[in-house]
Structure formats: C-alpha cells, structure tokens
Specification:
By secondary structure, the protein is mainly β. Helix content is 4%, strand content 48%. It is built from one helix and eleven strands, in the order βββββββββαββ. The strands form two sheets. Strands 2, 4, 5, 6, 9, 10 and 11 form a seven-stranded mixed sheet that branches. It has a four-stranded antiparallel sheet with strand order 1-3-8-7, with no helix packed on it. It is globular and about 40 Å long.
C-alpha cells in the first residue's frame, strides 16, 4: 500500500478555483491508478475523477466534467485535482485514493471498494 496525504483545500467563492494535491509515499507510485472522491454531509462518497498509472487516461464523474481536471506527476509521486468554476454543491471533504494495478474501466465505475489506500481528506467549502 501507499500512504496518501492531501492538501490544498479551503474556502472559496462560487466561480473560483482551487487545486488539490495528493502526495504518495513509496517507490511504486506508478503501479497505482489514482482517483479523487468527495463526500458531503449525509451523502455517499462520490467519484470525482481518476487517472491511469501512466497518466494517459482520465475519467470524470458527470457532475464535474468540463470543470475539474485530474493529473499526475510520477516523478513527484503526486496527483492533482484542478477545480474551476466551483459551485456551492462542490462543498465536501475530498479524498485521494489509490488502486494497485486498477484497470481504468473498473476505476471509472466509481466504487470506493476497488481502492486499496485512502488519504485523510481535505475540506473544500464553496460559498455563494
């Protein structure tokens, strides 16, 4: 498993932007598909987006398509989530997740049970 630490959350006005980072420990980062999930109070954990081992394929949840971009830097063991045009309904705790050798289509199904490792989460709050 890898250990994951998220950063970059905070308070932003609607229409603004934030970039989240997730730093991973270990030397086998590029064996892991990486994803972001989010969870708002009283709601289930929701798949936001994912990126394949190499970074060549990305997948997004319907609610964020066209606004969020996921990327990874394997040299830095880091995955990013660029969030633009933020809305109040994007308010949630955002979690980074890693799935060892996880196939892209399985990752894109958005089932949290497919992921091996999770970060502690970072709060994103979008105000009107």
């Amino acid at each position: 498993q890898v250990q994951l630490v998220e950063s970059g959350g905070g308070l932003v006005q609607a229409g603004g932007s934030l970039r989240l980072s997730c730093a991973a420990s270990g030397r086998t980062f590029n064996n892991y598909a990486m994803a972001w999930f989010r969870q708002a109070p009283g709601k289930e954990r929701e798949f936001v987006g994912g990126v394949s081992w190499s970074g060549g394929r990305t997948y997004y949840g319907d609610s964020v398509k066209g606004r969020f971009t996921i990327s990874r830097d394997n040299a830095k063991n880091t995955v990013y989530l660029q969030m633009n045009s933020l809305k109040p309904e994007d308010t949630a705790v955002y979690y980074c997740a890693a799935g060892r050798f996880l196939a892209g289509q399985i990752m894109a199904s958005g089932n949290p049970a497919n992921f091996d490792s999770w970060g502690q989460g970072t709060q994103v709050t979008v105000s009107l």
